Structures are given as structure tokens and as C-alpha cells.
Amino acid sequence: MPVVSRLVSIPLRIAEIAFAAVVAGIIGHYLASLDGIDAWPQARWIYTEVIAGLSILLGLIWLIPFSSGFFSWPIDILISFAWFAAFGILVDAIHHLPCGSIWSWHFRGDAVCGRWKAAEAFSFLSAIIWLVSAIIGLWFTFRVRDRGVGTTRRRWGRRGVPAV
Questions:
Q1: ∠ Cα 20 23 55 (to 5°)
Q2: b/e per residue, 33-53, with b = 16+ CB within 10 A?
Q3: For residues 130 and 156, what is the distance between their CA atoms, to the nearest angstrom?
Q4: Which residue stretches of 34-160 are H helix?
Q5: Three-state secondary-structure class, residue 161
Q6: 78-112 as b/e, with b when 16 or more CB fall inside 10 Å?
Q7: Per residue in 13-60, pLDDT tens?
Q8: What is the DSSP letter of 163?
Q9: Residues 118, 22 contacting (CB under 8 angstroms)
Q10: Measured in Å, how far apart are the chain's first and last C-alpha atoms?
């Protein structure tokens, strides 16, 4: 397992866990405080909460330093797409609030808008981090495949004839 890939992977996994925890905390706070509202907004927020919980779980599992964690890039891509969907859900929810542009991520002023924008920002950042993690895993997978399984090494590191 290359050292550089592992040194990059560990901070990415920690960031995935931290960003998901922020989103889970904010959305969980709103789910706990809202009681008799329509089921459709709750379903959106429950989806976001499930994605955050799944991200925390998978991030913790794949934080364990095994090279098999690099081969999980298809799941990393799926989680990234799920985070982009959650970001879209949060953008649609904040569109109905008087909080300004969706890309204006300043956290000053109204506490409700600040929390929503924080959840929106961290869901977008989480999607990007999961995508970067998937790209690193994909790079590692094809780098390992290109090493030439079935060949023997000669002296001084040159490739030899295929093993019989």
C-alpha cells in the first residue's frame, strides 16, 4: 500500500465523518423540534439524516488502514451522488426561506438561516470530499492493476518474464 495514498486517504475519511456529523446534528435538531408538519419535508430531511448516518458509519469503517478500503471507490461514488442529492434537497428547502442566495454561505445574521446554510455548505463539501476519495481509490485500483500481476521482478527492480 503506498504511503502517499494512505496519507491522503486518512484526512479525507476524517473530513467525511466530520462533515456528516455537522449535517446530522443540524438536521437532527430540526427533526426533533418539528412535530405536526407535512410528511414530505420530513421525508427529505430523514433522507439527509440517513445519508449522514451512513457516511459516518462507512467513514469510520474505511478509516481502518487496510488496502481494501481503496477498492470501495464505487460505493464512494454512490455516497457522493447521494450527498449531491441531499444538497439539492437542502437547496430546495432553503429556497422557501428569506435567506438570500443559495451560494451566499455567510453564517451571520438570522440563526435559522445560518444553520440551514451551514447544513447546505457541509452537505456540498461532503459530496466533494466523497468524490475526491472515490477518485483516489480509483487511481489506486488502476495503479495496482498496472503493476503487472503475474510478472516476476528481476534484480534492480526491472520487470521480468511472466511467471509460469
A1: 25
A2: eeeeeeeebeebbeebbebbe
A3: 38
A4: 39-62, 73-95, 111-145
A5: strand
A6: ebbebbbbbbebbeebbeeeebeebeeeeeeeeee
A7: 999 999 999 999 999 988 887 766 666 667 888 999 999 999 999 999
A8: P
A9: yes
A10: 25
Rounded distance, CA 131 to CA 137, Å? Answer: 10
Handedness of CA 39, 87, 127, 122 (dihedral sign): negative
Q: How many Å apart are CA 14 and CA 5, to the nearest integer? A: 14
How far is the C-alpha of 131 from the C-alpha of 148, rounded, in Å?
Answer: 27
Cell numbers given for 36: 405536526
C-alpha 16/C-alpha 83 separation (Å) is 11
- pLDDT tens readout for residues 121-136: 899 999 999 999 999 8
What three-state secondary structure class fits 151? strand
- Say which residue the cell 451566499 belongs to: 104
